[in-house]
Design a protein that fits this description.
The chain has about 210 residues and is mainly alpha-helical. It has one domain. The chain contains nine helices and no strands. Helix 1 crosses helix 6 and helix 6 packs antiparallel against helix 7. The radius of gyration is 18 Å and the shape is elongated.
């Protein structure tokens, strides 16, 4: 698994357009909201948590189409399924690599976007604390839907339609972790979603990969 994660990270660095596009999309979406709403810092501070979370969710979707698609096209996926790792382990390694190459980088840019949207310092810390499990959830659920739609016609259109409803609970509780007066319950729900997605998403993705290979 370590070798597979390292391979995925090397490919992400060599073909950095997917990660760069996700980061650029993240910044552009937040900037468009700032331009559209206006310069009033009070209004921007109110919408900032929802804007950052929504932008992070949409940006995390961009690299998913090629998560398994490129390996399936050139036959690498068949070799991975024969390398000795279980299918769920391959899916988990892909999810970890997706988070390291996309989700972690979004965390680094989130404070810049939050500051641009005039989010107060204490709220910004809660935003980042929620985005840590939130981006992990996005990577796990994204890996699941990427495997489920592998080989489907118009997978690029189908994947967001399947993924977005699954990610809505994380979006709701992530935003509530910043805006609610007592955010403990929202953080607890985020942790519960992550604890459920961590075993179930790789298992489901692994079964989908086996089915696609057969």
């Amino acid at each position: 698994m370590r070798a597979l994660i390292a391979r995925e990270l090397r490919l992400a660095l060599r073909q950095g357009t997917d990660s760069a596009a996700a980061l650029l999309f993240f910044v552009i979406v937040g900037t468009l909201f700032a331009f559209g709403i206006g310069p009033d810092p009070r209004v921007l501070a109110v919408i900032a948590p929802g804007v950052v979370w929504t932008a992070a969710l949409l940006a995390a979707l961009l690299p998913l189409e090629r998560l398994f698609g490129a390996d399936a096209e050139d036959g690498t996926l068949d070799l991975l399924l024969l390398c000795g790792l279980a299918a769920w382990e391959i899916a988990l390694a892909k999810a970890v690599a997706h988070w390291l190459s996309t989700g972690f980088l979004l965390l680094l840019l989130a404070p810049v976007l939050a500051a641009m949207l005039a989010l107060p310092g204490a709220a910004e810390l809660r935003l980042l604390a929620g985005l840590v499990p939130g981006t992990m959830i996005f990577s796990l659920l994204g890996t699941l839907t990427a495997a489920l739609t592998l080989g489907a016609r118009r997978a690029g259109v189908l994947m967001p339609l399947v993924t977005l409803p699954l990610m809505i609970p994380a979006l709701i509780f992530g935003t509530a972790a910043v805006t609610a007066p007592h955010p403990g319950a929202a953080f607890a729900f985020l942790g519960a979603i992550l604890c459920a997605a961590l075993p179930l998403a790789p298992l489901g993705a692994g079964a989908a990969l086996r089915a696609a290979a057969e």
